[in-house]
Specification:
With about 800 residues, the chain is α/β, with parallel strands linked by helices. Helix content is about 20%, strand content about 30%. The protein has a 40-stranded parallel beta sheet that branches. It is rod-shaped, with a radius of gyration of 53 Å.
Length: about 800
C-alpha cells in the first residue's frame, strides 16, 4: 500500500529536518539540513527518518510530489524506524524500488545498512556520506552515475551485477570492510562510462571481477589493504574499452588482473604493491592490453605475474624494484606477447625474472639494472625469447645465471659493461643456440662464470674487447663451440682466466686477439680452437699473451699473424692439421729458424702421440707458395729428423741402433732426400780421398799394369823397384820405356773417379791394379773395395733422393 503524508501525522508529525525536505523537494532544490556530516548521535534538528525518505524517493503523494530531479538532501542523519510501528524498514531500504530522478544524499550519515538492491533510478549520489554499516546495492540499475566520492563506509559497499549508464565515482572514498572481506564489491558490474577510484582508501578487497565498462578505470593514488583472502584489488576478467590507471597506488595485498581485457593502457607507474604471506603482488596472467603496460618506478614485494599476457604496445618496467615472494620469481612473464618491446632499464630485482618464450615486436632492454636471484640460481630466464630488435643488458649487474638458450633476435645482444657473477656450478650467460641478426657485444664485461654461446648463429661479430672473464668450477670461461658468425671474433684487450673454447666455430671475418691476455688454469687450455674455420686472419699480436695450451688442431684460417710474445710455452702448442694460407703482418717472423722455434713448442708425447708431421708440411707449403724455397726445404729436413726420431722411439730396442745408423747416414749424405745434391759433394770428397790414396800407392809402386803380358815384358822386369826413395818408381820407369804406349798413363784422380763412379768407365781401373806383394798394395786393394761400395751407395742415394724414395711418407 502506497504511503501518504497522513501516515506520518501530516506536516505537524514531521521532524524539523523532514519539514525542510518536504518544502524543498517539490522545487528540486538540494535541501541543506546541515553543512557537513552529522555526528553520532546526531542533533534532533538534522534527523530524517528512513521511512520518510523512502516515501519521498518513491514519489510522495498528492500532498507532496517531488520534482523530477529527485530527492536531494545535505547533512542529514538518516534515522532508523525500529521504534515506529508504521516503519517497514530498519534503516534506508529501497530494495526493488523504482525512483524517479536522482537519489542524492550529500554528506549524510546512515547509521544502518543502506539497502538499494534491484533499485532503478537515474543517479545515485552518496558523496561524502558516512555509512556506518555499509551499502548493499546488488543489481542496482542507474541510467546515469553512482557517486561515492568522499564516501566513508564502515561496512561493505556492494554493487555486484549493477548496471550504470555512465560512471561509478569513488574518488577519495574511505572504505572499511568491517567484519567482511570486501570493502568495495562491484563484481559483474556493467558501466557505460568509467570507474573512478582516485585517492580512495580501502581496508578490504576492492572487487571488480568481471567488470565491463566502456571507459577507463582510474585508480590513481589509491591506498588498498587486503581482506582476509589476501587480495587487495581484484579485477580478474575485467573488460574495459579504455585504460586502467593504477599509478602511485599502494596495495597491501595481491592485485589481480588475470584474464582482463583492457582496450587502452594499463599504468601502474610509481605503484607500491606488497603481497601477503609471500604470495603474488600482481597477478595479471593472460591479460590483454590494447596499448602500453607500465610499471615505471613501481615498488613490488611479491611475485609479479604476466604469464601469457598480450600487449599491443610495450611493457615498461623501467626503474621498478621487484622483490620475489615464496616462489622465488620477481617477474614471471613467460610467453608474453608484445607488439612493442619490454623495457627493464634501471630495474632492481631480487628473485628470478622470467620472460621465457616471450615474443616481442621491439627491443628487450634491461640496461643499468641489478638482478639477484636470491636463493635461486637463475637471475634472468629468457630462453626461447623471440625479439624483433635487440636485447640490451648494458652495464647491468647480475648475480646468477642469464639464460638465453634458443633465443632469437633480429639485431644484437648487447651486454657492454655488464658485471656478471654466477653461483658455483652455474653459467654467467647461457646463450646456447641463440640466433641473432646482429652481433653479441661483451665489451668491457666483467664476468665470473662461463659465457656459453655454443651453436649460436650471429649475423655480426662476437665482440669481447676489453672484457675480463673468469671461469667458474667448470674451467671454461667462453664456450663458443659450433658458433657461426658472419663476421669476426674480437678479443682485443680481453683478459680471460679459463678456457676459451671455439671448437668447430666458424667466422667469416677474423679472430682478433690483439693485446689479449689468455690464461688457462691447470690442465685447462687457454684457447681451444679445434676444427675452427676462419675465412680471414687469426691475429695474435700486440701485447697478446697465452699462458696455457693453444690448441689449433684441425683449424683452418685464411692467414696467421702472430708475434713471438703470443707464442705459448714449450709443450703448450697444438697445431696438428692446422691449415693457414699465409703468415703475414708487421714484425711477424717468417723464416725457417724462428718458425721452427714456434713449432718446437709442440710436444706430441704429452697428448699420446710421438710426432705430428703435418704442421711442418703445412709450414713448408706456406714458405714454398711465398717463394721461400730454402726455408721450406729446411723445415722439411727438420720434419724428417723428428719423424725418424719418433719412429726409432716406437721400434724395438734391438733394431734401434740400425735405424739410428741409417738415419745418420741419410742425414749427412742427402739430408733425408730433401737435398740429394749433397751426394755429389760426398762423391767429390771421396774422389779427393781416393786421389790421395792412389797417388801414394803409385809413389810406393803398389800399382801394376792389370795386363799380365805387360808385367812379364822385358820393359817391366827391367825396371826394378827403386832402392832409394828418390829413385824413379817401377811404373815411371816402365812408362818411360819404349813400351809405354802399350798402357794408358796412370792418373790418380781419374783412377779414383773410375773406382768411385759405378756407371762411368774411364778405363783407368781396368788398366791398373794393386800389387799385394808390395807393402801398400793390400791397403790399396781394400780401399778400392770400400770406395766402390761408397760410390754405389752414394749414387743410389742420389737417385733415390731425386725420385723422392727416401722421404718419409
Amino acid at each position: 500500500m502506497k504511503r501518504t503524508l497522513a501516515d506520518f501525522g501530516g506536516r505537524a508529525g514531521l521532524l524539523p529536518a523532514e519539514r525542510e525536505l518536504l518544502d524543498g523537494v517539490p522545487a528540486g532544490f538540494v535541501v541543506d539540513v546541515s553543512p557537513g556530516v552529522p555526528p553520532d548521535p546526531a542533533p534532533y534538528a538534522v534527523r530524517i527518518r528512513a521511512s520518510f525518505l523512502r516515501y519521498l524517493a518513491l514519489g510522495g503523494c498528492e500532498d507532496c510530489r517531488p520534482s523530477p530531479k529527485g530527492v536531494r538532501v545535505r547533512g542529514a542523519y538518516i534515522l532508523g524506524d525500529e521504534n515506529d510501528p508504521r516503519s517497514l524498514t530498519r534503516g534506508l531500504d529501497l530494495e526493488g524500488c523504482t525512483i524517479v530522478g536522482d537519489l542524492g544524499l550529500y554528506a549524510c550519515r546512515l547509521p544502518d545498512l543502506a539497502v538499494l538492491e534491484d533499485v532503478s533510478l537515474r543517479n545515485l549520489n552518496l558523496a561524502e556520506c558516512v555509512l556506518d554499516k555499509g551499502l548493499s546495492a546488488d543489481s542496482l540499475d542507474a541510467s546515469g552515475c553512482v557517486f561515492l566520492h568522499g564516501l566513508v563506509s564502515h561496512g561493505e559497499v556492494r554493487l555486484p551485477g549493477a548496471s550504470l549508464g555512465l560512471h561509478l565515482v569513488c574518488e577519495g572514498a574511505d572504505l572499511d570492510a568491517g567484519n567482511g572481506n570486501q570493502a568495495l564489491m562491484a563484481e559483474g558490474c556493467v558501466v557505460g562510462g568509467s570507474v573512478m577510484l582516485g585517492g580512495m582508501r580501502a581496508n578490504g578487497m576492492v572487487n571488480l571481477v568481471g567488470l565491463r565498462l566502456s571507459g577507463s578505470v582510474y585508480a590513481l593514488e589509491v591506498r588498498l589493504a587486503a581482506g582476509g583472502q589476501g587480495t587487495a584489488f581484484d579485477a580478474s576478467g575485467l573488460d574495459a574499452k579504455g585504460h586502467l590507471y593504477f599509478g602511485k597506488a599502494t596495495a597491501d595485498g595481491e592485485v589481480r588482473l588475470a584474464g582482463a581485457r583492457v582496450g587502452g593502457a594499463v599504468d601502474l607507474s610509481d605503484a607500491t604493491l606488497s603481497a601477503r604471506d609471500g604470495g603474488c603482488a600482481l597477478s595479471a596472467f593472460g591479460i590483454e592490453i590494447g596499448a602500453l603496460f607500465s610499471m615505471r618506478d613501481a615498488k613490488v614485494r611479491g611475485e609479479t605475474t604476466l604469464l601469457g599476457a598480450r600487449i599491443a604496445e610495450s611493457a615498461d618496467l623501467c626503474g621498478a624494484t621487484l622483490v620475489a615472494g615464496n616462489s622465488g620469481e620477481a617477474l614471471s612473464a613467460d610467453r608474453l606477447d608484445a607488439n612493442g618491446g619490454v623495457f627493464l632499464n634501471r630495474v632492481s630485482a631480487e628473485g628470478e625474472v622470467r620472460l621465457a618464450g616471450a615474443r616481442l615486436g621491439n627491443d628487450l632492454a634491461a640496461s643499468d639494472s641489478t638482478f639477484d636471484p636470491g636463493q635461486g640460481k637463475t637471475a634472468l630466464s629468457l630462453y626461447g625469447v623471440d625479439v624483433t630488435g635487440s636485447i640490451y643488458l648494458r652495464r647491468c649487474t647480475v648475480t646468477g645465471e642469464i639464460n638465453l638458450a634458443g633465443a632469437r633476435a633480429s639485431d644484437a645482444l648487447d651486454c657492454d659493461g655488464a658485471e656478471l657473477t654466477a653461483p658455483d656450478g652455474c653459467m654467467a650467460l647461457s646463450a646456447y643456440g641463440i640466433d641473432l641478426g646482429g652481433s653479441v657485444y661483451l665489451r668491457g664485461v666483467r664476468a665470473v662464470g662461463q659465457i656459453g654461446l655454443a651453436d649460436a648463429r650471429l649475423g655480426g661479430n662476437l665482440h669481447c674487447g676489453g672484457a675480463t672473464l673468469t671461469s667458474g668450477k667448470g674451467g671454461t670461461v667462453l664456450s663458443a663451440d659450433g658458433l657461426h658468425s658472419r663476421h669476426s671474433l674480437i678479443l682485443d684487450g680481453a683478459t680471460t682466466t679459463g678456457r676459451v673454447s671455439l671448437v668447430g666455430a666458424q667466422f667469416e671475418g677474423n679472430v682478433d686477439c690483439t693485446d689479449a691476455k689468455l690464461s688457462g688454469r691447470l690442465d685447462v687450455k687457454a684457447l681451444g680452437a679445434e676444427r675452427m674455420k676462419v675465412a680471414g686472419a687469426l691475429f695474435l699480436r700486440g701485447d697478446c699473451t697465452i699462458d696455457g695450451v693453444l690448441d689449433l688442431t684441425g683449424a683452418e684460417v685464411g692467414s696467421l699473424t702472430d708475434l713471438p710474445g703470443a707464442w705459448p710455452k714449450a709443450g703448450e702448442l697444438m697445431v696438428d692439421r692446422f691449415l693457414y694460407g699465409a703468415v703475414q703482418g708487421s714484425n711477424v717472423p717468417f723464416n725457417a729458424r724462428e718458425r721452427l722455434q714456434w713449432l718446437a713448442r709442440q710436444d706430441a708425447t704429452l697428448w699420446g702421440a710421438d710426432f705430428w708431421p703435418q704442421p711442418y708440411e703445412q709450414l713448408a707449403r706456406v714458405f714454398r707458395e711465398a717463394g721461400h724455397v730454402a726455408d721450406a726445404r729446411r723445415v722439411l729436413i727438420e720434419k724428417e729428423r723428428l719423424q725418424r726420431r719418433g719412429r726409432r722411439a716406437r721400434a724395438t730396442p734391438l733394431i734401434r741402433p740400425v735405424l739410428a745408423l741409417v738415419d745418420f747416414l741419410l742425414a749427412i749424405t742427402v739430408r733425408y732426400g730433401r737435398e740429394p745434391l749433397w751426394a755429389f759433394a760426398w762423391l767429390a770428397v771421396f774422389v779427393a780421398i781416393g786421389w790421395g790414396v792412389f797417388r801414394h800407392a803409385d809413389a810406393v809402386g803398389a800399382l801394376v799394369p792389370a795386363d799380365g803380358d805387360a808385367e812379364r815384358s822385358a820393359a817391366w822386369t827391367s825396371c826394378v823397384p827403386p832402392a832409394s826413395p828418390g829413385a824413379p818408381t817401377q811404373i815411371a820407369c816402365f812408362l818411360a820405356s819404349g813400351d809405354r804406349t802399350a798402357h794408358a798413363p796412370f792418373d790418380a784422380a781419374v783412377y779414383s773417379a773410375d773406382v768411385l763412379l759405378p756407371i762411368i768407365d774411364f778405363g783407368m781401373e781396368s788398366a791398373w791394379t794393386p800389387d799385394d806383394r808390395r807393402p801398400f798394395g793390400t791397403v790399396t786393394q781394400v780401399y778400392i773395395w770400400m770406395q766402390t761400395v761408397v760410390g754405389w751407395a752414394l749414387s743410389l742415394l742420389a737417385v733415390a733422393g731425386f725420385s723422392g724414395l727416401i722421404k718419409s711418407g
